[in-house]
Every structure is written in C-alpha cells, then in structure tokens.
Amino acid sequence: MRLVVDLTRCQGYAQCAFLAPDVFTMHGEEALLYDPNPDDAQWDRVRRAAAACPVQAILVDQTEIPATAQEGTHVR
Amino acid sequence: MSADGPERAHAFKKGGHIVIVGASLAGLRAAETLREEGFTGSLTMIGDEPDQPYDRPPLSKQVLLGMVPAEHTALPRRREIDADWRLGVPAIGLDLDAHRVRLADGQEIGFDRLLIATGVRARPWPNENERDLDGVFVLRTNGDAARLRRRLAARPRRVLVIGAGFMGSEVASACRELGLEVTVAERGPVPLVGALGGVIGSVVARMHREHGVDLRCRVTVTALEGDPSGRLRRAHLSDGTAIDVDAAVVCLGSIGNTEWLAGSGLAAGPRGVACDAGCRAFDVNGIVTDDVFVAGDVARAPNPLYEYNFLFLEHWGNAVAQAEVAGHNMISCGSARRPHLAIPAFWSTQFGVSIRSVGVPTFADEMMVMQGSLEERRFVAAYGHRGRVTAAVAFDQAKWLDFYRELIMAAAPFPPSFVPVDRPPVMRSMSPEFPDPALPSHGATVTITGHLPNDQRVVFTPARA
Amino acid sequence: MTPDTMLKRITDYGSRADPYPLYAELRKTPVARQEDGTYVVSTYWEIHSLLHDPRISSDRRNLAGPWADPDIEEEDATLPPSMIRLDPPAHDRLRRQAMRPFGPPHSPEYVDSLRPELAGIVGGLIDGFEGKGQVDIVDDFAYPFPVTVICRILGVPREDEPRFRDWVDLLVSTLDLAAWDDPAERQRTAQRARLELGRFLGELVAARSRKPGDDMVSALVTGHGPDGPMSQLELISTAVLLLIAGHETTVNLITNGMLTLLRHPHVLERLRREPELAVGAVEELLRFEPPVHLLPQRVTLADIEIAGVLIPKGAPMTLVLGSGNRDPLRFDDPDRFDPERRDNQHLGFGSGIHTCFGAPLARLEGQIALVELARRLQNPRLVADPPPYRQNPVLRGPRHLLVEIDGIAP
Ligand SMILES: Cc1cc2nc3c(=O)[nH]c(=O)nc-3n(C[C@H](O)[C@H](O)[C@H](O)COP(=O)(O)OP(=O)(O)OC[C@H]3O[C@@H](n4cnc5c(N)ncnc54)[C@H](O)[C@@H]3O)c2cc1C
Ligand code: HEM
Ligand code: SF4
Question: Given B284, B288, C358, C400, which residue has the most CB atoms within 10 angstroms?
C-alpha cells in the first residue's frame, strides 16, 4: 500500500508510531521516519494510525484498498 | 464572450484538454485537484522518469538508512485521475502560439491548457570528467538514491559530502548512522548558513561534530581524482589538503528543469518559471499568459508577505499547495480563481532532530531565540525583517509553530515583546548571520529572486571557483 | 442569561445530561469573562490557538494580580506538581522520562503489545454478564476495565483498588469548582487526597526500587535515558497522575460510547458487522461526547488579545473542549454523530504539548471495548435515557448505564 506523511503538518505527536510501530518510527523525540509503501498486512494498523493523527497528516492511498488486508502476516 | 468567460470555462471543464508536464508530486496533486473539482475533459501526464509519481524526501533519509528500498516511495493517490500517461519521455519544446508540446520521441501533443511542473534537478559536479568518476553521486531521483544506497551498503572507507545545505547534512547524518566515516566540505562558515543563518548553523555544526562528522568549513573541493580504472580515490580541498575517499555526494543545490522551454517566450531560466500568485506563467515581457500554469519546485511566484518578491521554493508542502491552486485556477475563471499565498514551510530530519521552518528565514535582518535553548538543541527562534516577524525555526519544538505562523501572517512586530513559556534567561535580538546575499548559496531552499518576472541574472559560481 | 454566569450554569449538575445547548449559547461570546474573573473560551479556533500559544501556562504559580494564590508554593513543597500542571522545560523533561517505558522513541511496541491483554480483560468482563438480564455498563465493565489496565501497567496490585478508590474520588471531585463553596477548602482537600495517593504509590515505588518487576513504575525507577532519572517525588506525582488520568477518562469514553451507540442503533448494528468502523467511531466520540469537557487550569503569562477580548496577564482561563468540538465554524453539522466523519481534528485529547499522554492506549481500549460490546450483547436496550450522570462537569459521563440484554454471544 502507498502512504505519505505531510511533514510540514506533522507535529511529532507520535500517535502513528504507537499504533503502527512497524511502519512509523520516531527517530529521536519528534522526527518521524516511515515506510511509504508498507506491506498490505499493515493495513489495519495504518488505518488506525491515520485516524489517530491529531493533525491528519497521514494520507493513505484512496484508490487501492487491499482486499487481503490480514493482520499479523507481515514479516520485515 | 471573453476568453475567460463563464461559458467558455464551463465548456472547457467538460471537454477541454489539459497537458501536465512533470509527473511527480506537483503534477499528480494538480491532476487530482482537476478531477476533484469536476474536470471531465482529457488529461495527459508527461514525465521523463519511467516510474509512477514517487516521493523524494525519503530518499535522503529512510532510503539511505536502508529502512526502505529506493523504489518503495510511490506516492499515494487521493483519487483516480483517469489520465493518458506518457512516462519515460521528456518534453523538449513548447510552441505557445500553436498550443503544442513537443516530445523527445518526435510526438507533438496539443493542449488547451498546460501545467508546467518539471521541478528541479541536482546541480552536477562542474567538472565533466570528474563527475563521471565511479563514486561521484548526486541525489534527486530514486535511481540516484538506489545507486548511492548500494555504495553506502558496500561500506566505503570514507564518504565526502560536498556542500552542507539540508541535503548534504541529511546525507552526512545517514552516513554516520550507518557507521561510515564522512567528511563534509562546506564553503560557508557553518552548515545551513544559507538557509538558516550562522547562529543556527553553529548549532548544526555542533550536531555534525558530536556525531563524528569530519566537518570542514570555509573550504571548497577543488578537484576529484580517480584511479586509472576511473574510480574515485581522492579529493583535493582549497586549503591544500587532500583526503582519500571512495564516494563523494555532490550536494550543491539545484537547477530548474526549464531547458525545454528555451525559445518558448516564457520567463524561464535556471531559477524556474515566473508566474503570478494565481500560478499563470509570465512571458519574457512580463505579460501573464492565459493558458499556461506553473506549480512546484520549478515555479517562481510573488508573495505579498515578502514585499511581493518572487520566491523560488524547494519545499514539498509548497509543491502540494501550489499544485492545488494551479489545478483549481486552470478550470476556474475570473473571481473564482484563488491566489497561492501559503506561508512557506519546510522540514528536515537529521541527527535525530526534527528541524522545522515557517516563513522565509532568509528574509530577515534580526533573530531571537524565543523558547528553549540552542545548547540543548530544543528551541524556537523567530526571525524579523524591518521590525516584523517573517519566519520561525524550531528544533524538536514543532508544536509551537502554529502560533508563530499566525504571527507571520499578522506581520506582528519584531522583536516580540511577550514572555513565552520556557524563555531563555536572556532574550535578545541578534543578527542571524546570513552570508552576503551576493554570494551564491546552495544551502537555501527558499531563494528570493527579486521583483521582476523575467529576471534571469542569477549566476551561480560553482564550488571550485 | 448573561455570559458572565455561564460557567456556573454549565457546571450546575442540572446541565450535566445535555450541556450542548448551553455551549451553543456560550459560543456567541467566544471569550467570556466570568464574575470571578475567569475567562471562558468556547470556540474551536480560539481554543486551538491558545493550546499552541506559548504565552499560556499550565502552571498555577503564574496566577497574578487579583488571582495570585500565595498558598501554592507551600502546597507544592509536599508533593511537586505533575507534568500536566507544569510548563516546559520541566514539563517536556518529565514527559520524555515518563514516555521512555511507555512509547516511542524508546518503547514503540509497548502499547501495541498490550492488545491481546486488553482483549482478554474485555472478554472476561463480558463473560461475567452471563445469566444477567440487566447490566450496569459503568460498574460492571467501563470502570473495571481501564482500572485493571492501568494497574497492570503501573504495577499496582489490582486488589488495592479499594485503598485508592476514595482518594481518587475525592481528588476528582475537586476538579468540580461548582461543588465547592470555599476554594481554599477545595484546594486543601485536593492536596490531602494527592498526598494520600502519593503515600500509597510511594510504598509501591519503594518496593519496586528494592525488587523491580516488569511494570512501568519499575522501569521509571531503574532505567533512564539522557535526561537521567526522575526524583523520587517526581516519580510519585507522575504515578498519581497516570493512575487517575489512566482510568477516570476512559470510563467515560466507553460509557458515552455505548450510550451514543444505543441512541444510534443503526451505527451499533453496523459496528457489529464491520468492526473496523470502531476506529472512526472512537474519534467521533472523542469529538461528539468527549470524556474531558473542560480544561480548567490555564493562565496567561502576558496580556493577550483573542477574539477581540483582552485577557490580562495572570488571569485564569477555562477552555471548553466539549464546546469547541461542536463549533459549527469548524465542523460541518457538528451535532450529528457521524462515525465516518472526515477532517475530524477534535479536541478530545487536547492539543499542543499537553496532548494526552495516554491517547494511544485510550484509543485501543475504546475500540476493543466497543467492538466487543457491540458484538456480544444481544439485543441491548437502554433502561433510562438520559442515564444518571456523575457529578463531575470536567470528566463528564454517566454514573450508571443500565442496559437490558437478552444474553451474550460467545
Ligand atoms: C533527496 C531529497 C530530499 C528532500 N527532502 C525534503 C524535505 O525534507 N522537506 C521538504 O520540504 N522538501 C524536501 N525535498 C524537496 C521536495 O521533494 C520537492 O519540493 C518536491 O519533490 C517538488 O515536487 P515537484 O513535483 O515540483 O518537482 P519534482 O519532484 O522535481 O518533479 C518534477 C518532475 O518533472 C520531470 N521532468 C523534468 N523535466 C521534464 C521534461 N522536460 N519533460 C518531462 N518531465 C520532466 C522530472 O523528472 C520530475 O519527475 C527533497 C528533495 C529531494 C530530492
Ligand atoms: C479517553 C480517554 C482519555 C481522554 C479523553 C484524555 C484526555 C486528556 C486531555 C484532554 C488532556 C490534556 C490536559 C491539558 O491540556 O491540560 C490529557 C492529558 C493527559 N493524559 Fe489523558 N485522556 C485519556 C486517557 C488517558 C490515559 C489512558 C492516560 C494514561 C495512560 C492518560 C494520561 C494523561 C497524562 C499523563 C496527561 C498529561 C499530559 C501532559 O501534561 O503532557 N490519559 N488527557
Ligand atoms: S501522528 Fe501525525 S503528527 Fe504525530 S508523528 Fe504521526 S504523522 Fe506526525
């Protein structure tokens, strides 16, 4: 799946890094690094993270909703 | 019926043909805006890169660190855009009168309206022989990033970063995190001096050194030397020293991708294509065109907050915001058109610190640390120009920036007179220590390019000069 | 009704079940000075900008002029204020230190790793409904769930709950300004309750220092990062804050949530079939029926002008999150409950540097609880609407939520 974080809006609240820790990583206190094209297995967690972002900075692709979004099968 | 009349606008929205040249961030977001706002005509996306639009900021961060493969930064879509994609073919010419774009493969594509979103490219190492040495890199595309990442993964003994602007600093940070030896050569007195000034640049210099970067300021690289098989071996510096390196990353800023517009009559040059606040391109006579729009890194647009200077912004957020305005205006007429007045904002992530800026720090003659401390690298600094707030920069303190953005929008007085939380023991206004504006700077991501749309006097003196 | 008595009207118990018409009234005066000199702010953009305004303090020691409170220093000497009552740099340091065992960057996986345990506790509580025709969502579920969770996280023995219950109740009651005629009495009570809780948690801290476990208090005692360890007293006041903030709010989220779902049966029905709806539903609940309605403790550090009103330096402010969340200038159709609302940047967890520390945990707790209640309760019916509410206007939610059920699904 494809996603992007608008880092000019992100204020480092780290909600995403709590809720989808394999996709969003805090690199220091406020600096966010993330995987722009994570495995579809992360779909559920990414959705939770995007909804929780207090500044709605996470854009998840609106055209591809993975049919096989299953949890726990993602190995990195 | 006027050229811009509502009827024509309506007909155009239903059945016109729009061509977008440059299929990256700005091009994609403009296309989505067009569809979002009801454009049902045909849309052609022309891009010289073979890939679908992808994101660049991760290339100097996650990708170099090996957290994400270079080809895994494809941009998400806000919606379907139903476009005719022509990828892997550059546009090589524009005929304004005939409303046609010429492609490198010989095709010509007509348009009713055109969006120019061709961005910028990395400024290459000036010496052509040296630039082709195996081990000399630039960083703009995912291909560049893949090549550089492969080299870093092979653990070169030492990497040389030429130029300590944002990109150079991020590359150096990634190298150190990978445990690689790295030397940074910067012509200015400290890193980021062109973007943030010497005061904050000194903070960044300490970050470099504490993380083990061999930072050498006030030097330039005079020559890159290869071995007989064409592999980079050594770099010579202006202070007479030489260092053995197996990789050099050239981070000397960028040049607008405007060659294809040469002779078109548009006000285009190395610092981009000039346009008005509504994203319409200017021609060389300073007359605004009707059917040609510009957005993203390639655009130079006037901003009223900065005394109507034309700003050349290499900011992700600007590319998105300007593309939205351009898309909207391409299918709107008269008073329905909107100006692109967003306050510039930029971020960088390096050495574990989140650096944020709002406004135009280079548009300043004073600065003041408002909150936190430079020593601890957690602070907010405000910048002022002729007694009003024009920018703010925060290190790991992003949650306050909304407030400073409002000060900038309100042209609030500088120095601010209020006492904030976490104020430093002494609050005083000082010079931000920007270098002489006459000197070329490769570190800035906002360049103030004067008041004239067709001003093409910008000269860049390469690093070796 | 005049704007300068609005806060009284809002905190009046009679308004508890439905304060929203009052909020609408209040928003006509975005910044309203009250008789006692408190400034009440009720509109979204004004609240939002104040929460990001460095001229606004969370530290009561900055009350000045007619509002100055000479007793504060003395009180604080016994148990220092926790992060929620402090400004940077102390706030930021304490929050970083407390975050180390709880979340990123040091412990990013921690909250996510609790998911199976949360599901287990929820499952067990609902199993307990077996054979009952009527349950109290508060006492039988929404209260014990987050208490169990926060006790486990902190390492507080669950059976000690009766020991801290009364002090927590007392302390929470002191947030309710209206319930106290004498402000000094209120503050003394708050101080006493905090001290008692501090003593209780102090024992725990001492025990964990001797023999650390795998809980958060142990981690705070033993492990520390670049900021060094918290002092003993800081640790205790952090633990007090986490213990209270960790359950007194979540209970409302779950109860308000169940109440709202029962009032919107089609959403409840959808949630049963599409559990992924819970993510948006919880965000919308945090907007529509937020567990925390008021932030009663902000202070101006300078004269500031907002919405045309000059608030003098040193004045107390109350930010009405529950009203900002219903501001039509910010949210389309704000009085509609829409679990699929887009652009939902609610104030449920506050905003700015004090944004709820436990938000990711609270979200997971809320999502898991509502999904399981929706899935397992068979034919749930409200016994009384509105239900009886807690006295408290700050942490607003039902005191009981009686629901009749036909049984529970496995
Ligand atoms: C490594 C890196 C890190 C960055 N980090 C940050 C950051 O941290 N923060 C930040 O704010 N910004 C950052 N940026 C800048 C940001 O990526 C740009 O602002 C953004 O990409 C601009 O988008 P654009 O679409 O205008 O231009 P571009 O992304 O440059 O896209 C232009 C496209 O047009 C194509 N093109 C050019 N000429 C032609 C032609 N003649 N015919 C057809 N196609 C053509 C190009 O190949 C390219 O695909 C970074 C950039 C890079 C390279
Ligand atoms: C739905 C449940 C919850 C809601 C609605 C909620 C709401 C809030 C709000 C509005 C604030 C801001 C206070 C201010 O700005 O002054 C806050 C702060 C805080 N919350 Fe929560 N909270 C919830 C759950 C939790 C949980 C589960 C925990 C602990 C694990 C927690 C711990 C804290 C702490 C420590 C602070 C202070 C943060 C700081 O000052 O930086 N909360 N909460
Ligand atoms: S939740 Fe949003 S604001 Fe917070 S770090 Fe993630 S993207 Fe940034």
Answer: C358
Cross-chain residue pair B406–C55, CB shorter than 8 Å = no
Report ipTM for this prediction: 0.93
Nearest residue, CB atoms, A14 vs list C104, C276, C345:
C104
User: Which chains have 3 or more CB–CB distances shorter than 8 Å to chain B?
Assistant: A, C
Last residue of a domain, one of B302, B336, B370: B336
Report yes or no: C98 and C242 within 8 Å, Cβ to Cβ.
yes
pLDDT tens-digit readout, B391-422: 999 999 999 999 999 999 999 999 999 999 99
* Nearest listed ligand to the Cα of residue B262: 1
Most distant pair of Cα atoms in chain A: their distance: 35
**Ligand 1 mean position, distance from CA B26 (Å):** 8
Please list the residues that pair with A63 across neighbouring strands. Answer: none
- For ligand 2, the distance from its centroid to the CA atom of residue C84, given in whole angstroms, is 8
- Cβ distance of C54 and B372 shorter than 8 Å: no
User: CA C183 → CA B19, B156, C36, C86, C186, distances in Å?
Assistant: 69, 69, 12, 21, 5
Domain count, chain B: 3
Is the shortest distance between the CB of A5 and ligand 3 below 6 Å?
yes
Residue B455 lies in a domain: no
Domain check: are B15 and B112 in the same one? Answer: yes
Pairs across A and C, CB distance < 8 A? 58
Best to test chain B binding among A7, A29, A56 (most B CBs inside 10 Å): A7
Reported as a single tens digit per residue, the pLDDT across B239-281 is 999 999 999 999 999 999 999 999 999 999 988 999 999 999 9
B118/B403 Cα distance (integer angstroms): 34
Nearest CA in chain B to C299: B421
Q: What is the CATH number of the domain that holds B180?
A: 3.50.50.60
Sequence-ordered strand ranges (E) for B323-443: 345-350, 353-359, 366-373, 378-385, 388-395
Q: What CATH number belongs to C3-408? A: 1.10.630.10
User: Are residue B243 and residue B260 in the same domain, yes or no?
Assistant: no
Same domain, B207 and B101: no
Tell me, in angstroms, the distance from the centre of ligand 3 to residue A18's CA.
Answer: 10
Q: Report CB contact under 8 Å: B399, C353.
A: yes
* Residue C244, both tokens: 């209270």
| Distance between A13 CA and the closest CA of chain B, angstroms | 9
Would you say residue B25 lies in a domain? yes
Phi, psi of C405, rounded to the nearest 5 degrees:
-135, 155
Furthest CA-CA distance within chain B: 70
Shared domain check, B248 and B143: yes
Do both B146 and B241 map to the same domain? yes
